[in-house]
C-alpha cells in the first residue's frame, strides 16, 4: 500500500521588518525547512514592521519548533508566538447547549416554564414512559468516562479525559443528530460509577461508556445493562469490534480468504481486544491467538485477570505458547488494540500471503503506517489522517440512532452484527480496494444505513419498544 501522511498545522505570529523582500525570504526559509505555508493573515502594520499570522503545515511538533528557531534567527524576523490550531479549537471546550425554542414573551415563558410546565410534569408522573416523548431523554446520550484508559494514553484522569468525551459528543450530534453530554467521573470505584450512572439516567435515552480500563469496564457495563432499561454500550469494546469486523469482512473479500480459515492475532487483550475477539468468534473465525504483555494466552496457565481465563478457553485451538514472534508465524490478520511500537517489520515478514494489518491503537498505532505499508496488502489504523480508518466513530452514532429510534432497552449481539454488516456493505464489491475497505466517516449514507439495520434487528429480537419505519425521522 502507498501512504501519504498529514502533519500538524501551526500558526506563527511573526513581526517582519519593513526591509527588502522579507516575505519572499521567509517563504524560501520555510520551504527549504520542509514546511508548507497554508495561509497568511495580516494582523497589524507599523512604521518599522508588519505583524502577520502565518499558518504553516509541519511534520510534527519538533519540526514546528525547528522552523520557529530558524525564523527567529533570521535578521528582520521575530517570532512573537506559535499557536497550535488544535489547541485553538479547544479554547473554552467544544460544545454548548442551545435551546430549541426562543422565549419571546410572557406567554412563551408560562408554557416552557411555570405554570404550564407543571401539567407536563404531571403527565410524566402518571406515565413515566412519557419522559421519552416530552423530555430530552428521547434523543440524549451520556458519554461517561472515569479517564482510566483514554485512547492509548492510559489513566490520565477525568479532567484530561474531557476533550475526548467532548469530541465524542460532537460526533454524536454531527453524524446522528443525537445530543450527547460528556460526563467524566472523579472516581475509579466501579460500584460508585454504577451508582452515579444509575442516578443520572432519568435524563438520558442511552449510556455510552468510554475509555474505562479493563477489566473493570466489563463489571461496570454488565451491572448497568442489567440494572437500567436504556441501552448501555461500552464503545471501546463493542463500537471497536463492530467496525473491526466491518473492515475485516471487506478485507477478506479483497484477498479472497474465508473468515473461517483465517488465523488472526489480537494484541492487547483489554476492553477492545476482548470484544473484537468475541465478535470474530460470532462471525465464524476459529483460529484466534491473543497476545498480552506476558505473551500468548494459553491453557497451560492460570491468569489473575479473570477475562484472560475466559479468553484462553475460547481461543488458541492448538494451544500454542510463546511471544508475539511465535504468534505471527503464518498469521493472515493482525489486530492491534494495545499501544505504540508493538509490531515490527520482522513480524510482518512472518505473516501468510496478503497480510491484513489493523493497527488500531490511538493516537499512535502499533507500527508506523509508513513503515508497515510496503510489507502488507491491507493496512488500517484508527486515525483520521490515513486511509482505512477503523475507528468506533463509524459505529456509535448509527448504532445509538437505531437503538433510540426503536426505543430499544438494550443493544444486543444481533444489533451489533447488523451494524457491522451495514458498515461493510456501504462499499460495493466493485469499489473495494486496498485503501478502501471501510467507508469514510463522512459518508453520510453510513449512519442511516446502520441505524435502519440496528432498529430492524432490535424489532426482530424483541428489544424494541417502538415500531420504526425505515428512514423514520424520530
Ligand atoms: N481504533 C479504535 O476505534 C479504537 C477503539 C478502542 C480502543 N482503541 C485503542 O486500543 C488500545 C486499547 O484500548 P482499550 O480500551 O482496550 O484499553 P484497555 O486498557 O482496556 O486495554 C489495553 C490492553 O492492552 C495491553 N497492552 C498494552 N501494551 C501492550 C503490548 N505492548 N503488548 C500487549 N498488550 C499490551 C494492556 O496491558 C491492556 O490489557 C488503545 O490504544 C486505544 O486507543 C482503538
Ligand atoms: O477515540 C477514538 O478515537 C477511538 C477509541 O475510542 C479509542 O479510545 O481510541
Ligand atoms: Mg475510546
How would you characterize the overall build of this protein?
This protein has helices spanning 22-32, 61-73, 85-90, 106-112, 117-126, 131-134, 157-176, 190-200, 216-227, 235-254, 271-282, 306-314, 324-327, 345-349, 369-372, 396-405, 413-424, 444-460, and strands spanning 8-17, 36-45, 49-58, 77-84, 140-145, 179-184, 206-209, 232-234, 263-267, 287-292, 295-296, 333-336, 356-359, 378-381. It is 39% helix and 17% strand. By secondary structure, it is α/β, with parallel strands linked by helices. It starts with 7 loop residues before the first strand and ends in a 14-residue tail after the last helix. The longest helix has 20 residues, at 157-176. The chain is built from 18 helices and 14 strands. Helix 14 (345-349) links the parallel strand 12 (333-336) and strand 13 (356-359). The chain has three domains: 8-90, Alpha-Beta Plaits (2-Layer Sandwich), CATH 3.30.70.260; 106-230, Malic enzyme, N-terminal domain (Rossmann fold, 3-Layer(aba) Sandwich); 236-474, Rossmann fold. The strands form three sheets. It has a six-stranded mixed sheet with strand order 11-10-9-12-13-14. A four-stranded antiparallel sheet has the order 2-3-1-4. It binds nicotinamide-adenine-dinucleotide (NAD), (2S)-2-hydroxybutanedioic acid and magnesium ion. Magnesium ion binds next to helix 10. Nicotinamide-adenine-dinucleotide binds next to helix 10, helix 11 and strand 10. Residues 92-225 form the Malic enzyme N-terminal domain. Pfam families: malic, Malic_M.
Amino acid at each position: 500500500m502507498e501512504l501519504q501522511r498529514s502533519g500538524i498545522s501551526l500558526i506563527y505570529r511573526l513581526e517582519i521588518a519593513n526591509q527588502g523582500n522579507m516575505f519572499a525570504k521567509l517563504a524560501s526559509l520555510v520551504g527549504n525547512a520542509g514546511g508548507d505555508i497554508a495561509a497568511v493573515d495580516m494582523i497589524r502594520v507599523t512604521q518599522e514592521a508588519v505583524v502577520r499570522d502565518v499558518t504553516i503545515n509541519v511534520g510534527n511538533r519538533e519540526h514546528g519548533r525547528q522552523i520557529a528557531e530558524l525564523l527567529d534567527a533570521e535578521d528582520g524576523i521575530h517570532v512573537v508566538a506559535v499557536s497550535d490550531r488544535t489547541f485553538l479549537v479547544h479554547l473554552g471546550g467544544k460544545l454548548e447547549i442551545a435551546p430549541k425554542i426562543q422565549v419571546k414573551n410572557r406567554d412563551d415563558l408560562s408554557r416552557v416554564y411555570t405554570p404550564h410546565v407543571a401539567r407536563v410534569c404531571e403527565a410524566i408522573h402518571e406515565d413515566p414512559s412519557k419522559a421519552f416523548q416530552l423530555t430530552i431523554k428521547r434523543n440524549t446520550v451520556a458519554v461517561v468516562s472515569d479517564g482510566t484508559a483514554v485512547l492509548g494514553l492510559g489513566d490520565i484522569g477525568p479532567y484530561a479525559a474531557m476533550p475526548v468525551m467532548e469530541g465524542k459528543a460532537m460526533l454524536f450530534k454531527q453524524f446522528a443528530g443525537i445530543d450527547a453530554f460528556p460526563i467524566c467521573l472523579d472516581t475509579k470505584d466501579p460500584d460508585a460509577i454504577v451508582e452515579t450512572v444509575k442516578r443520572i439516567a432519568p435524563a438520558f435515552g442511552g449510556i455510552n461508556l468510554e475509555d474505562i480500563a479493563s477489566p473493570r469496564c466489563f463489571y461496570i457495563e454488565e451491572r448497568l445493562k442489567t440494572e437500567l432499561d436504556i441501552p448501555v454500550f461500552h464503545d471501546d469494546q463493542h463500537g471497536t469490534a463492530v467496525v473491526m469486523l466491518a473492515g475485516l469482512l471487506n478485507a477478506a473479500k479483497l484477498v479472497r480468504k474465508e473468515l473461517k480459515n483465517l488465523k488472526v492475532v489480537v494484541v492487547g487483550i483489554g476492553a477492545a481486544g476482548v470484544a473484537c475477539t468475541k465478535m470474530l468468534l460470532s462471525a465464524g473465525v476459529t483460529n484466534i491467538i491473543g497476545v498480552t504483555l506476558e505473551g500468548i494466552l494459553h491453557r497451560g496457565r492460570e491468569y489473575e485477570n479473570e477475562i484472560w481465563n475466559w479468553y484462553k478457553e475460547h481461543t488458541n485451538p492448538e494451544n500454542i505458547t510463546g511471544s508475539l514472534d511465535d504468534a505471527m508465524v503464518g498469521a493472515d490478520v493482525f489486530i492491534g488494540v494495545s499501544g505504540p511500537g508493538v509490531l515490527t517489520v520482522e513480524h510482518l515478514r512472518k505473516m501468510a500471503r496478503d497480510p491484513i494489518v489493523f493497527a488500531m491503537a490511538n493516537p499512535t498505532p502499533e507500527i508506523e503506517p509508513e513503515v508497515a505499508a510496503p510489507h502488507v496488502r491491507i493496512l488500517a489504523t484508527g486515525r483520521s489522517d490515513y486511509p482505512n480508518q477503523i475507528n468506533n466513530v463509524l459505529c456509535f452514532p448509527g448504532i445509538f440512532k437505531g437503538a433510540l429510534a426503536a426505543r430499544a432497552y438494550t443493544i444486543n449481539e444481533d444489533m451489533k452484527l447488523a451494524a457491522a454488516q451495514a458498515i461493510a456493505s456501504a462499499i460495493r464489491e466493485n469499489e473495494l480496494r486496498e485503501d478502501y475497505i471501510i467507508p469514510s466517516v463522512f459518508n453520510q449514507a453510513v449512519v442511516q444505513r446502520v441505524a435502519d439495520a440496528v432498529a430492524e434487528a432490535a424489532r426482530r429480537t424483541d428489544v424494541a419498544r417502538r415500531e420504526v419505519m425505515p428512514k423514520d425521522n424520530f
